[in-house]
Specification:
This protein has 14 helices and two strands; from the N terminus they run H-E-E-H-H-H-H-H-H-H-H-H-H-H-H-H. It is an all-alpha fold. Strands 1-2 form a two-stranded antiparallel sheet. Helix 2 packs across helix 14, helix 8 packs antiparallel against helix 11 and helix 11 packs antiparallel against helix 14.
Length: about 300
Amino acid sequence: MGKLTPFLYLLPALIIIMLFRFIPIVLSFLISFFEWTITGPAGFVGLENYQLLLIDAEFWQSMLNTFYLVIFVVPSTIILSLLFAALLNTISFIRGLFRTVYFIPTVTSLVAVSIVWRIIFNQQSGLANFLLQKIGIAPLGWLAESTGIFQLFFQNFGINLPDSLGGPSLALFAIIIVTVWKSVGYNVIIYLAGLQNIPKVYYEAAEIDGASKIRQFFKITLPLISPTTFYVLIMTTIVTFQVFSQVYLMTGPPIGGPLGTTKVIVYYIFEQGFGEAQNLSYASAIALVLFAIILTLTLIQKKLEKYVHY
């Protein structure tokens, strides 16, 4: 019995993982090879669902929007989180208050904040346009604007970029702002814990040697905080690929608009599986492609672990 005791402690977690993680993944893999709607299976179709992905323009648009989201959200979140954590680490007075303020977005309902942000980005009466007008900038379309942000920027200088270089639409950029705002608080707390674990003797020795604060940050803080950065990088990437609620609540009608420029891949899976199409097999095929992409990126990020200083 003594040897079995550790396994008995692990058994409840193992059952939950098998029921809610492993078995759904296996079933999703099997369903992707059938024609399977909400009413049940209709026949084996082999790789037909995967072949359909190659010519599905809406799938590629959703994938492009998702990659835009990841490319903008992950670096922005890491930089802002580290910056705020470094500032918090230098003060002791009311540090707890600031820590609470930064963490509030993390514990606030995403449904509630998405509705509030939708009001803020309202083209006619939103706070965002009100502030822009106060500093002399013309109001923007925000969630109703399908033009790329780079196109909008260079149009001010009389330069017309092609659509392929336009970048994410302004509507998707509004989603990016909300996603970064929501993610920063949690990562600030993680970074703050990492910063407080760095022994002060390194900074004292650097000051004796005459190193400036900036040099101390790049030569001491950044290398010693690298395990935290590595964790934040992997987790933020995975979570950003799964963004759904902001798009569902802030865009439309139709959801994912304007012109599909905010439709991300997780919402497209939902639309295919539980929308009008009710095509569970095609939705399963898309979900498995997304799983493969996230797994591949995570394995690539693991290669960066050799630069982490444990």
